[in-house]
């Protein structure tokens, strides 16, 4: 590149990459070989980097130089984070920026395919005080009815959620305090859920996923606030939804034995895929346990197993996202996107794309092993190509957009 300034430099990209890479302006300046004030000018838009500086900048943060010249996609709605502490502000900024990158990947793929149609209950609450427990129960039941999954344990919640039009991301973040977040994409008209994979616990992960689903349904129309009591109330409601959705009232009541013991709860844990602690809370919400019995069970649980783990936590693997990987597999298999062109078109590093799209490490080094969840029913030019994923009995409509070229 020449020494002239890059006139189309997008300063918001610099803010994104600083957040994702957890770098300060001073650290980045040292890595690029410029002064901190120069980075500050780039970030404020008062100055654009020269061509050589842009090359160095892109190299140290591991993106393509031209990525800095592309306008970012529209912002997602402000996510709800499990941790609202000021000490975790940098972590929240990092995860929010990662979610924006995931949206850009999904938007690129959406030029060629239609994602599953959105099937979520619609609620328009504007204040948490409007939401009573019976309304949360109703929303959980309606969601099960919409998805036609009955009242039994859900075999694969991740697959069911993606089949309902939610785009799921799961990756290791290095932020143990924040298990997940969720937000709505106006550009796609669909929501995202981002789950942390740092704790390799399939039971906890399922509950976290149901918790974020609760936020999407119950709190979509609410303005975000840093006020502590309001935040706690929203978290409590999402927790209540997760219990009501994963553990339907009548079915669970018919299965539990009185008096409730920890050994009985371990059996229910394996059957329903829900931690013992969440089961205790759900039984209390249904008034199968009174407050004294709930406290007794939690004390016994702590004495026997400690507060952070339970027997059998390693028995269930965390459920994995499939939608973005399946989309990419199909686009490559049908010669719509050449495999080696994808990282260049997106502009992010190969590893960032692999992590955000749920791809195995090394995916772009050779032909992918195509996941046999999807097969095209008719020729690629047809407008109504559909794919069904049957693991949960939930149909996942998946169509190439009309006019999609055979190769680009």
Automatic annotation (TrEMBL):
Keywords, alphabetical: DNA-binding
Domain of life: Bacteria
Any Pfam family: Peptidase_M78
Signal peptide positions on this chain: none
DNA-binding as UniProt keyword: yes
PROSITE patterns to which the protein is assigned, alphabetical: HTH_CROC1
Domain annotation HTH cro/C1-type: ranges: 21-68
GO terms of molecular function: DNA binding
Keyword Repeat: no
SMART domains reported in the protein's UniProt record: HTH_XRE (SM00530)
InterPro entries: Cro/C1-type_HTH (IPR001387), IrrE_HExxH (IPR010359), Lambda_DNA-bd_dom_sf (IPR010982), Rad_response_metalloprotease (IPR052345)
Family: Belongs to the short-chain fatty acyl-CoA assimilation regulator (ScfR) family.
Protein name, UniProt field: Putative phage-related DNA-binding protein
UniProt source species: Candidatus Glomeribacter gigasporarum BEG34
Lineage of source species: Bacteria, Pseudomonadati, Pseudomonadota, Betaproteobacteria, Burkholderiales
């Amino acid at each position: 590149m020449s020494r002239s300034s890059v006139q189309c430099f997008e300063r918001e990209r610099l803010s994104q990459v600083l957040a994702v890479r957890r770098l300060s302006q001073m650290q980045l300046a040292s890595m690029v070989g410029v002064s901190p004030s120069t980075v500050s000018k780039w970030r404020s838009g008062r100055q654009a980097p020269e061509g050589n500086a842009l090359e160095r900048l892109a190299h140290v943060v591991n993106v393509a130089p031209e990525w800095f010249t592309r306008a970012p996609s529209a912002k997602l709605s402000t996510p709800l984070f499990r941790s609202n502490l000021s000490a975790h502000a940098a972590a929240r900024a990092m995860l929010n920026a990662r979610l924006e990158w995931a949206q850009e990947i999904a938007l690129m793929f959406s030029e060629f395919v239609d994602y599953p149609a959105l099937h979520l209950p619609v609620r328009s609450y504007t204040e948490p005080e409007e939401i009573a427990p019976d309304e949360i129960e109703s929303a959980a039941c309606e969601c099960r009815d919409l998805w036609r999954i009955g009242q039994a344990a859900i075999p694969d919640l991740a697959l069911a959620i993606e089949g309902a039009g939610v785009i799921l991301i799961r990756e290791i973040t290095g932020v143990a305090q924040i298990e997940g977040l969720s937000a709505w994409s106006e550009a796609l008209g669909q929501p995202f859920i981002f789950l942390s994979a740092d704790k390799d616990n399939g039971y906890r992960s399922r509950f976290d996923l149901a918790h974020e689903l609760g936020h999407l349904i119950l709190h979509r129309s609410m303005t975000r606030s840093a006020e502590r009591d309001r935040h706690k109330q929203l978290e409590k409601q999402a927790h209540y939804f997760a219990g009501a959705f994963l553990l339907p009232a009548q079915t669970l009541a018919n299965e539990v034995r009185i008096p409730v013991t920890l050994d009985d709860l371990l059996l229910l844990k394996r059957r329903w895929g829900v931690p013992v602690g969440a089961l205790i809370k759900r039984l209390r919400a249904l008034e199968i346990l009174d407050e004294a019995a709930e406290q007794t069970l939690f004390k016994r649980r702590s004495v026997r197993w400690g507060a952070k783990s339970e027997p059998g936590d390693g028995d269930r693997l965390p459920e994995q996202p499939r939608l973005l990987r399946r989309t990419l597999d199909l686009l490559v298999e049908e010669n719509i996107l050449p495999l080696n062109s994808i990282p260049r078109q997106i502009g992010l590093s190969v590893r960032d794309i692999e992590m955000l799209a749920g791809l195995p490490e090394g995916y772009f080094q050779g032909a992918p092993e195509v996941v046999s969840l999807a097969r095209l029913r008719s020729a690629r030019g047809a407008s109504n190509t559909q794919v069904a994923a049957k693991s949960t009995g939930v149909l996942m409509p998946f169509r190439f957009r009309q006019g999609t070229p055979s190769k680009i």
